Amino acid sequence: MSKERLARLVLLPELELVKSVKLSNRILGLLCKKNSTHEVCPKCACPSESVYDHRPVRIKDEPLRNKLVVLLINKRRFYCSHCKKPFTEPISGIGKGRRTTERLRSAICWAAENFHDLSRVQRHYDCSADTVYRATYDSLELRRRKRLYPLPPVIGIDEHSLRKPKGRSTVYSTIIVDHTHRRVYDLLEGRARAEIEEPLKRLSGRFNVRVVTMDLSPVYRTLTKEYFPNASIVADRFHVQRLFTKLVNRFRKRITGDKPSHPMRKLLLRNAEDLESHERRIVIHWLNFHPELREIYEYKEAIRRFYKIRGYHRARSALGRLLLRMGRSSISEAKKLRTTLM
Q1: Whole-angstrom Cα Rg for the chain
Q2: How far apart are CA 289 and CA 297, in angstroms?
Q3: Rounded to the nearest 5°, which phi and psi values hold at 169?
Q4: Environment class of residue 109 by beta-carbon count within 10 Å: exposed (0-12), middle (13-18) or buried (19+)?
Q5: CA-to-CA distance for 214 and 217, rounded, in angstroms?
Q6: pLDDT at 186 > cutoff 60
Q7: How far apart are alpha carbons 165 and 159 in whole angstroms?
Q8: 227 and 247 in contact (C-beta within 8 Å)?
Q9: Global pTM?
């Protein structure tokens, strides 16, 4: 491999390769230097061209082809005529006072999350446990600071099951999603009002929120009206459609029993337009013998088609017709579901 190609693949952008040195069977040393006509003083921001002296440093870099890479840099020290003090030239990709590159620290963080244990990370990168912990926690702190921003205009609130201890009830939490940046904004312990009320008060930018998507939980709806007064509440599509699919499954169980393996279960829960022609005929023929289930199934398909309607007025008209039809139904569950929708 030529010197120029090796420099492009391995070195940091500001460094120039002088020569490569074999330090051991596993360690590859790269003697390099930084070419610049002047440097800026970090204290007074005045440029300086006067080289004070040189300081050789060894910087550990990300491994290359299972070989450890050490950058041997002869750093220059410049003299600032304004401050009357020397300073060492900075190199992008290497933190001040550190003996490891940022890409090595990023690689260690990735390994700490994906390797079986931290001992393997130490052996793979030939580093101490302190280096692994420092790199990992510095990365976590940087991620934490990136999320310290006010709430965006559009957020989502939903419950999330954390774990289910053996012999005890499931432990739930409340997750707040940033829809603007498509990532999790915060995770609050618990889902009851008494558990999440205080954490909601401490959130910054509550008055910036304009839209909150959520399930049909009355607790979340009440808290949203109280702590996000400028926000409009939008029922999440998934939870609305799940009301109908659960009702279809409940009526199906009355006929076939509680058998998850029953072939009609999957056919009834799938979208009608996704069924093959022979599957659609089977569903229609089977539902003709069960008129109540057929009616609930038609409601499920109607609400699914509702979310595909384009245009506010057309959608409002379609929803009104669906609610009117459900109100005239003789099935008590359909009337309760209509009340929930309204």
Answers
A1: 32
A2: 13
A3: -75, 160
A4: buried
A5: 8
A6: yes
A7: 17
A8: no
A9: 0.56
- CB of 329 closer than 8 Å to CB of 339: no
For residue 251, the one-letter residue type is F
pLDDT digits (tens, 9 = 90+) for 233-256: 999 888 899 999 999 999 988 888
Q: Which sign does the torsion angle of CA 151, 153, 154, 157 carry?
A: positive
Closest CA to 30 of 22, 40, 16, 20: 20
pLDDT at 1 over 60: no
CA dihedral (260, 264, 269, 275) positive or negative: positive
Q: Which amino acid is at 32?
A: C
- Both structure tokens of 42: 């970090």
Cα 183 to Cα 14, 179, 191, distances in angstroms: 34, 7, 20
SS (H, E, C) the chain: CCHHHHHHHHCCCCEEEEEEEECCCCEEEEEEEECCCCEECCCCCCEECCEEEEEEEEEEEEEECCEEEEEEEEEEEEEECCCCEEEECCCCCECCCCCEEHHHHHHHHHHHHHCCCHHHHHHHHCCCHHHHHHHHHHHHHHHHHHCCCCCCCEEEEEEEEEECCCCCCCEEEEEEEECCCCEEEEEEECCCHHHHHHHHHHCCCHHHCCEEEECCCHHHHHHHHHHCCCCEEEECHHHHHHHHHHHHHHHHHHHHCCCCCCHHHHHHHCCHHHCCHHHHHHHHHHHCCCHHHHHHHHHHHHHHHHCCCCCHHHHHHHHHHHHHHHHCCCCHHHHHHHHHHC
Domain boundaries, the chain: 1-96, 100-146, 154-235, 238-341
In whole numbers, what is the pLDDT of the chain averaged over residues? 87
For residues 339 and 342, give the distance between their C-alpha atoms in angstroms, rounded to a whole number: 5
Q: For residue 5, what pLDDT is reported?
A: 62
